[in-house]
Amino acid sequence: HTVTIMSVDAMLPSGGFFDDWLLLFEQVPPYGLANVGIGISIGVSVLGAAWGIFTTGASLVGAAVKAPRIRSKNLISVIFCEAVAIYGVIIAIILSTKMGTPEAYPHNDAGVDCNSPAALKATWPRLPADGAHCQGSLYMKNLLFAAYAIFNSGVTVGFSNLFCGVCVGITGSGCALADAQNSSLFVKILIIEIFGSALGLFGVIVGIIMSSPAFIR
Fold first, then answer.
1. Residues 160-184: pLDDT tens digits?
2. Which of 169, 168, 160, 158 minimizes the C-alpha distance to 195?
3. DSSP state letter for 16
4. Burial of 211 (C-beta count, 10 Å sphere; 0-12/13-18/19+)
5. Closest by alpha carbon to 85, among 160, 161, 34, 159?
6. What share of residues in the chain are helix, strand, coil (percent, to 5)?
7. Could you check whether the bond before residue 125 is cis, i.e. omega within 30 degrees of 0?
């Protein structure tokens, strides 16, 4: 029998799997990319909050059957999980205010070479003549920057809140079970839970800084 070994490049079109996906990613319109980032911010944050509430709520309800005294004070764990979704809502609102109705698209001056690789390489990272005759290219450059900034901000906040929600939920679950056995452990585990809830704030702070210079008009 003859065994034929094919290279990875031969099996993947256009030289590689990641090349094709990066090309597809680059073709997403800036407005659509920014809206996807906003959706990720709120959607993934709510997923983290729901996951945390499900985890800590199930343990709380189960442990409260044997120790009803833990019901009230352990609700603070559920509140911490809900705060994760609030972080996502706040960032989604902030990012949404950075988007406005599209303006008239400007055009480059006739006869000016603005988009050829040679012209862009000669003045990189600026446009030829600092964009004085390349208003269309300058507008698109600013538009893409804002879209990527908003998208990456949404991804940062969304996933940091996802992991924060899981962390707070699991810690809150342990807090409820431990409190049911020994009430003196509640405050000690609550301190750990507070540190876990701070993880989402880190993502919110970074997301705000990332998106601060971005405006889509």
1. 999 999 999 999 999 898 888 888 8
2. 168
3. -
4. buried
5. 161
6. 75, 0, 25
7. yes
Q: How many CB atoms lie within 10 A of CB 20?
A: 13
Q: Which amino acid is at 47?
A: L
Which residues does 187 contact at the CB level (< 8 Å), separation at least 6? none
35: which 2 tokens?
């809206």
**What distance in Å separates the CA atoms of residue 56 and residue 81, rounded to the nearest whole number?**
9
Report field, pTM of the whole predicted structure over 0.85: no
**Using one digit for the tens of pLDDT, what is the confidence trace for 89-139?**
999 999 999 887 776 667 777 777 776 777 767 777 677 766 677 777 777
Q: What is the Cα gyration radius of the chain? A: 25
Instruction: Judge whether 164 and 51 are in contact, CB under 8 Å.
Output: no
Quickly count: other Cβ atoms within 10 Å of residue 64's Cβ.
17
Q: Which amino acid appears at position 14 of this protein?
A: S
Burial 160-195 (b: 16+ CB within 10 A, else e): bbbbbbbbbbbbbbbbbbbbbeeeeebeebbeebee
